[in-house]
Amino acid sequence: MLTSTGKTFAVLAVLLTVTGWLMHYRALLALGLACLVALVAATIWVVRRPRVRAMRELQPERITVGQRALSELRITNLGRRRTAGGVALEQFGNRVLPVELPSIDPEATATVVQQLPSDRRGVFQVGPLIVSRSDPFGLIRVGQQQRDIATFYVHPRIVMLTPFPSGVQRDLDGKSMGEAPEGGIAFQNLREYVEGDDLRLVHWRSLAKTGTMMVRHNVDTHQPRSVIVVDTRENVYTEESFEDAIEVAASIVMASMLNHFPFRLETTCGRTANSLMTKASVMDLLASLNRVPHGAMQGAVGPLSRDPGGASLAVVSGRCTSADLTCLAPIRKRFDSLTITRLGVRGSEVVLAPNAVLINASGVPEFARGWNRRAR
User: Which pTM does this prediction carry?
Assistant: First the structure.
């Protein structure tokens, strides 16, 4: 396709040729024909498009904001002639990254390593790579789009928090199904033996009856449990305060995961996570969250009315109003503690009730100080 320079040459070629012909001005006619010859020569030059194959590997595929990640491209020349090298373009989310390609011998492979941007949280599509070829004058550029595409996850930052020591389950025998973590003495069910299980938990009577080794699956119904509600409504955040809110939610979740405590994450946009998911899956979800124009606090809080109780509830929002939080009143007594965090709001901790606190924080460090002070 014509570049901006090529388009200028094409316009000049037409204008100069037509003007020179009509005015019988040989100098203008010669310049116009010269421009036409240059365009024809450029077209002939780029007829042979680059024939290459690109394979991409991300190292690693998942990082935290600010960490280092590399994209390793292996470019193979499929043509019979040596490639000219130059600059290729690689798609990265909504951005385009230039990639310096070396000259490659026929049927040879070259490796190009490039650092990926990690300055902001998100889930980014890396690729496709567009390998182009241009004439010496830069009039025409043709490209070959590769098919190799990878997904790159930039997780939110984490600050160290102390999980609330609440969430004792009322049913000492536990539930037949649920999110109670493995361990403890409360029997839940029988399951097949897997390598590494404690042989003292083998149910020998089942083995004798079925021939399959079964073990008792015990759970701990007394571990602290957390429920986190994240407000994703666009109208209560700035871009900066929303990033702070995601970091706060990720930090609360990680505090539970590091201590092997069960948790449940709800959002006003309908996306959820829980402690049965892997760490990578939960962080991937938090990396992908964006501000949305729809959703309501009631939609995320409504299902909590069926919660068995005995947990700590954390609500993370921006500049929400007291009217937004009225839906919390009917369920407040169901939870051992309630912490409401408003990001991007200057202020201090406000005690709403004996077990309920409002933390106004202008940023994540201020929130962390208030949360850890309350947890202690």
Answer: 0.75
